[in-house]
Structure formats: C-alpha cells, structure tokens
Write a structure and sequence with these properties.
Among the domains are: 19-88 and 322-344, no CATH class; 97-195 and 281-293, Nucleotidyltransferase, domain 5 (2-Layer Sandwich), CATH 3.30.420; 198-267. Helix content is 56%, strand content 12%. It contains 15 helices and 5 strands. Helix 6 (177-186) links the parallel strand 4 (168-173) and strand 5. Helix 4 (59-87) packs across helix 5 and helix 5 (147-160) packs across helix 6.
Length: 393
C-alpha cells in the first residue's frame, strides 16, 4: 500500500473559537506575555513569564505576539477615527473643565536615525482648598507621525474624553508653531497658555546673553523677573527686556529671545490664568514623554524599526491609561478577523491561480483547438472524424 498524498495546511474551527493559533501558548499566556513586553524588553518578558507561569516562550515569539496585537489595536483606532469623521457622532460627556497639552520626544530607530514621537495629554482640572489648579484623570495618546496625521489620530482620544462638550478647556503648550496649529484644528475655543517653564527658559537665556555682553545684572535678577512674570504678567518684564535689547542691539540672541516672548505675550497672562483656576505648566505631557514613551522605547541597545514604533506606543497608551482590557479584547477580535480574511484570500488564490493558468494557456493557442471545443468536455476527448474524411481514407 502506497503512502498517502501530502495535504496542505488547514485549521480546526474549534481552535479558532478557543483562540488557539497552533503555537502551544494559550490566549491567557499570550496576554500575560504581551503585557509584560509592553513594560520591559522582550527577553525579560519571556523570563518573567517562565518564572511566574512556567510557560517557555522565545523572545522572537514575544516580539511577534506584541506587534500583532499592536497592529490590530492600531487598526481598531483607525476604524474609530474614520467613523468619527464620516458619521460625526455626538461627543460623550466629560469633565466640565479640562486641559490639553502636546509635545514631542525623540526615539532611536534602526540605522542611527532619531524620530519624534508626538504625545497628546488630556486631563481634568480641579481646584484644591487653597484654590490652586491641579490636573487629574490624565490620559495620553502617542504616535510617530507627521503633524497632520497626528492631529487626525488625536481626535479619537479627544472625543473619548468629551473635550468638545466641556464647559471650558485650556491648552498649555510650549511655543512650537505646530502646537498652535494643532490647537486651532482640534480645540479652537481653548484658553491658550504658554508653559511657564518654557517662558522661563527664554527669559533666563536672554539674561545670560546680556550678562555675557557686559550687562551687570543682580544675582537675584532672574528670580525677581520670573516672580513678576508669574504674579504681575508679562508687561513689566517685557519692558525690562526691551531696555536690555536697546542697550545691546547687536547681540542677536537678545533680539531673538525678546521677539519670541513678545509674539506670545497674549499667552503669558499668568495672573489671570491662576485666578481662573487654570494650570500654567505642561508637566503632565512632559511626564508622559518620559513614562509612556521614553521608559520603553529609549535605552541602551534599543533601536526600533519605524513600522514597529506605533505598534508599541498604542499598547503603552493602553496600560498607562488603565484601559488594557478593552484594548486587548478589541485587538484580539480584530486580529482574528484579519486571520480569517487572509485564510479566505489564500483559499481563493488556490482556486484562481490554476484557472488563470489554464485560461492563459488556452488564449496562447487559439488555433490548436476546434471552433466547437469546450473546456466542459473531457480533456482527452477529440471530435470524431467526418464521413467525408473517412471516405477519402
């Protein structure tokens, strides 16, 4: 008895229902592995999984599972973004007073390149017993993208937090031009505030340039200048800085820093902001840069393929926003749907490719077959010899 012919790969429907992919790792094991890999290196995640659950998995598998779920989670959010732009659903209710901030942080890519990851932070603004403003219920969205793409993707988080329905919103940003454009598009009604620490850096640099040029400034000049800026507003300080610029008009740095601050005078009304109960610092987004982005994507020996960065970032946002279960479940459903679509596509190709080859073969030899030939006839059947031809024979 001869050997049975080899069959192609297949899948068992029950495996699909149970979430098994043939790797020998259960769905619970995969979730634990991916969640660990979101916090630490793929190698360390495998070690922890083995120590905690006794499951032995390679770093390659850890990387594959993580990127698969990250790609699926990105697809889910892209679908949400499309739905928001096409259907324009009403924004859910959120906190009455909210703050948004955005900033960028650089991460290393393969080949020695550095790329900027942009991060949006949304927070609820509350006041303590002394009336000071604080931010709470902080969430973030981080992406490696250009400004236009990032602005579109940020819509998902802004909609989820109900920023559009908030009674009042402030946008605490540094002075980058793209941040003003972002605010124009996503939250034009926001009260715009120049991050106080960012303004302080420019004041300090201007004073340092004047001192190096020969100006005699008191040792407490910077402290007094910033105190005045915070409690009196930018008017008196800008007058002092203009006097320094008049004294040293040839010092380019003095003129540049002064022009920068003058352009943003309307966003430095810090006494008014504090009285209204708004924060004047963007520490929340700076913390997100460090804790969400840099804590996992930067470090000795870490270099990322560009297409893998957002796959990791969407999972980092999920765990840091305490929305892991939702992200995992929707990501798994999306991944299973993609697997089914690929299987159906592959099955169709297995049928279409032979038919395409046969049709090309038939088209390449049109004169070799009779006019009444049909592929429905058995392949070896030939038309019978005519009676006239038999007579001749």
């Amino acid at each position: 008895m001869g050997l049975a012919p080899t069959v192609g790969k297949g899948f068992f429907p029950l495996d699909e229902q149970l979430g098994l992919d043939g790797s020998g790792v259960t769905p619970q094991g995969q979730e634990a592995l991916v969640r660990l890999a979101v916090w630490m290196s793929f190698e360390h995640a495998c070690e922890f999984l083995h120590d905690l659950l006794g499951i032995q998995v390679s770093a390659t598998s850890s990387r594959r599972y993580t990127y698969q779920l990250g790609q699926a989670a990105l697809a889910v959010q892209e679908a949400q973004e499309h739905h928001l732009r096409e259907d324009l659903p009403e924004s859910p209710g959120g906190a009455a007073r909210q703050a948004i901030s955005a900033d960028g942080a650089f991460v290393p890519l393969v080949g020695g390149e550095w790329a900027e990851v942009k991060t949006l932070v949304v927070a609820e603004v509350v006041r303590d017993e002394q009336g000071a403003a604080h931010t709470t219920q902080i969430s973030s969205l981080s992406r490696l993208a250009d400004v236009e793409t990032f602005s579109r993707q940020a819509l998902v988080e802004l909609h989820r937090r109900g920023v559009e329905q908030a009674e009042a919103v402030c946008a605490v940003m540094d002075g980058a031009e793209w941040l003003q454009g972002f605010t124009d598009e996503q939250c034009p009604k926001a009260v715009r505030i120049l991050d106080f620490a960012h303004a302080a850096e420019y004041v300090s640099a201007l004073g340092q340039a004047a001192s190096e040029a020969g100006s005699v400034l008191e040792s407490s000049w910077l402290e007094q200048a910033l105190h005045g800026l915070k409690h009196e507003g930018p008017g008196p300080l800008l007058q002092q800085l203009r006097a320094l610029h008049t004294q040293y008009p040839t010092i380019a740095q003095v003129g540049e820093k002064l022009a920068y601050l003058e352009k943003r005078e309307a966003h430095m009304q810090y006494p008014q902001y504090q009285q209204a109960g708004w924060p004047i610092g963007s520490g929340s987004v700076e913390s997100a840069n460090k804790l969400v982005v840099e804590a996992r994507l930067k470090g000795a020996g870490r270099h990322w393929e560009r297409e893998h960065v957002n796959r990791m970032l969407v999972l980092r946002n999920a765990v840091c926003n305490q929305r892991w279960q939702e992200t995992w479940q929707t990501g798994v459903v999306q991944h299973h749907q993609e697997r089914i679509q690929r299987r159906l596509w592959n099955a169709c190709w297995k049928v279409l490719i032979p038919l395409t080859r046969l049709s090309r073969l038939a088209a390449s030899h049109p004169a070799s077959r009779p006019a009444h030939y049909s592929w429905r006839q058995p392949f070896l059947r030939r038309p019978s010899v005519s009676s006239d031809r038999r007579a001749k024979i």
